[in-house]
Amino acid sequence: MNRRLLEKHSSKILFAATMSALVLSFAGTILNSHLLKEKFGDWKYLQSFIILVSYLVNFGLYYSGGRLVAATDNTLKIRTYKGYLIYFALAGLGVIILSLLVCGIFFPKVLNKDLFYLALTMLPLFIIHPLGFYFEAVYQGEKKLLGLSAYRFIPPFLYVVLLYAFQSFSEGSIFYNAILFLWHLLYCMHDAFKNRQACF
Predict the structure, then answer these.
(1) Which residues cross the membrane (predicted)?
(2) How high is the mean pLDDT of the chain?
C-alpha cells in the first residue's frame, strides 16, 4: 500500500529530491570553501574540467539509449541496451583519461602540474561521471521515478554528512576531499547496480 502511494506521488517526490539535492550541493560548496580555503578554486576547476569533458563525449547517446529502453517491454532488449550504455560509459572514461593526459602533458596552462598529478591518482574513479548519465537514462527509460529520486538525493546527502564528519581530514586537502567525493558516489552507484541487470 505504501509503495503504491509513493508511486502515485513519484513525480512530486522526484521534484522534491531534485530541489533538495541542489540545496545540499550548495551546502557542500559552502562547507568546501571553508575547509579548502585558497585551494577551493583548484578543486572546483578540476571538477568543472572533468564534467565538461564528460558532457562533450555524451553525444546524446545516453538520451537515445533511454528512449530505446522506454520504447520496449522486451526484457532481453532492455538488458542489451543497458549493456551498450555501460560500454558507452567505459568509452567516456577512456576519453576523460586521454583528455587529462593530453592537457596535463602538453597544455600545462589548462591543467597545471599539481592538479594533473592529483587527477592521476584518481583516474579510475572518474567513471562516476559517465555512469551518472547511464543511471539518469535508465531510470527515466524504465519510468522508475522513485529510484531516480533516491539516486539524485542520496549521493549529495551522504557527501555533505561525510564531509562534515571527516572535516579534519578534508581541511586544506583537495586529495582527501576528492577521494571522499568520488568514492561515496561510486559506492552509491555500486549499490544501485545490484538491481539493474545489464546484458553484455
Answers:
(1) 12-33, 45-63, 84-109, 115-137, 149-167, 173-193
(2) 84
Does the pLDDT at position 72 exceed 70? yes
DSSP state of 111: S
Confidence grade of residue 1 (pLDDT, cut at 50, 70, 90):
very low
How far, in Å, CA of 89 to CA of 71, rounded? 21
Q: What is the pLDDT of residues 28-63, one digit of tens each?
A: 899 888 888 888 888 889 888 888 888 888 878 899
Query: Phi and psi (nearest 5°) for 36?
Result: -90, -20
CB-based contact 116:73 (threshold 8 Å):
no
At 194, phi and psi to the nearest 5? -60, -30
Measured from the Cβ of residue 93, the count of other Cβ atoms closer than 10 Å reads 21
pTM recorded for the entire structure: 0.83
Query: Which has the closest alpha carbon to 76: 161, 167, 175, 197?
Result: 197
Cα torsion angle, 19, 21, 26, 30, sign? positive
Q: Where are the domains of the chain?
A: 40-193
Residue 197: which region, alpha, beta or left (left: phi > 0; alpha: psi -120 to 50)?
beta
Phi, psi of 71 (to 5 degrees): -85, -5
